[in-house]
Design a protein that fits this description.
The protein has about 170 residues and is mainly α. Among the domains are: about 5-50, Arc Repressor Mutant, subunit A (Orthogonal Bundle); about 55-100, no CATH class. Helix content is about 45%, strand content about 5%. The chain has helices at about 10-15, 20-30, 65-90, 95-100, 115-130, 155-160, and strands at about 5, 35-40, 45-50. The protein has a three-stranded antiparallel beta sheet with strand order 1-3-2. Helix 1 (about 10-15) packs across helix 2 (about 20-30). It is globular, with a radius of gyration of 19 Å.
């Protein structure tokens, strides 16, 4: 999404996967409307581009299969975000001072209701949306792609081991 249109080979190199595996998954993403064909410089290569500007996983699924798919998507997004953060930390010393001073790895414990949480996320989305890489048409000359991750979940559910029931509050 953030790097713009690319071939399955380019995507495969970025992900450390095979081009055939990426081609298969790109066709599946096309089937569900998450990617689309882009203009290709020649007829031999298929160029793909994201048809969405971000991913938000929600468990408001209509059945167990959709709920499991949402959980799988959430796990994959978290795994990618964690890998990117670890790689960044390992490489940050090679960045210029300006980028080092602009970084933020923050964690907060908020006391909020479900309605306040939804409103906070809506407000943050409104602040972030103008900067989303694929849809930003004008940016400063020194602008780069910056990874921003945001998670919001009930902390007590995160500290309870899986498969254990927690009293509802």
């Amino acid at each position: 999404m953030s790097s713009g249109p690319a071939t399955s080979s380019t995507i495969a190199r970025a992900l450390g996967e095979s081009p055939s595996n990426c081609s298969y998954h790109l066709r599946e993403l096309l089937r569900v409307g998450l990617v689309e064909d882009s203009d290709s410089p020649n007829a031999r290569e298929r160029v793909w581009k994201a048809s969405v500007t971000g991913v938000r996983s929600s468990v408001s699924a209509s059945g167990p299969e959709e709920a499991q798919s949402a959980a799988d998507l959430s796990a994959a997004v978290l795994q990618l975000d964690q890998r990117l953060a670890r790689n960044y930390i390992a490489n940050r010393e090679h960045l210029g001072r300006e980028w080092q001073e602009a970084e933020a790895i923050s964690s907060y414990a908020l006391r909020v209701s479900p309605a306040e949480t939804r409103q906070l996320l809506k407000d943050l989305d409104a602040l972030i949306r103008p900067f989303i890489a694929p849809s930003r048409t004008e940016a400063p000359a020194d602008a780069e792609i910056v990874q921003l991750s945001l998670q919001a979940f009930l902390k007590s559910a995160a500290t309870t081991p899986p498969n254990r029931t927690r009293p509802r509050s």
